What does this fold into?
Amino acid sequence: MSHPPVRAVLFDLDGTLADTALDLAAAVNVILKEQGRAVLPFAALRPLVSKGGRALLARAFPDLDVGEREVLLPKFLVAYAQALVAETVAFEGIEAMLAELETRGVLWGIVTNKPEDLARGVVDGLGWQHRSGALVGGDTLPVRKPAPEPLWLAAAQLGVTPAACLYVGDDARDIEAGNAAGMRSVAALWGYRDDGERPESWLAEAHCATPSDFHRWLLKVLP
It folds into this structure.
């Protein structure tokens, strides 16, 4: 199957571009301490980071019902906002890959389910605010991934058609969203997955084990 030339690459944020797990896990443990509970080891929380705050709180408070955990969500977001990039870094190989895109004149942007203000804080903290040409958060629109609309908005922000975009993410919802948006999709296997997830079933065009693997794959498809 032939594809139009790749004019832009869109990325998920947590678990794809940025390793945010330490800071998110720390915020969960702040809430656990506030509630008089024992903190959880990092290994128990890391696999759920790409699923969002509600999934992290469900792991931390399995005895609470959905409504009780929902009350804790704003507290969690406040705790996280107070230390957004204390430990967060770009995954190894990401900077070289982004530099390659920029050198070739290929635009890039971010579509995440993280609230837009928090996503912007991470992007600013990593020094990408003048490099990323699009940023769409989980609350930018009334819908979020796996709906395709956030990806369409990011493509519009970059001034390209969806068919000329790649979307890269580490969660099944990312690939579902990319496919629904009419974009080529790539599974970032270096990200966060819980036991039992099978990324080979996500219907991505490619599955890349590391950012460097994705970089090499990208060189084959860029114009």
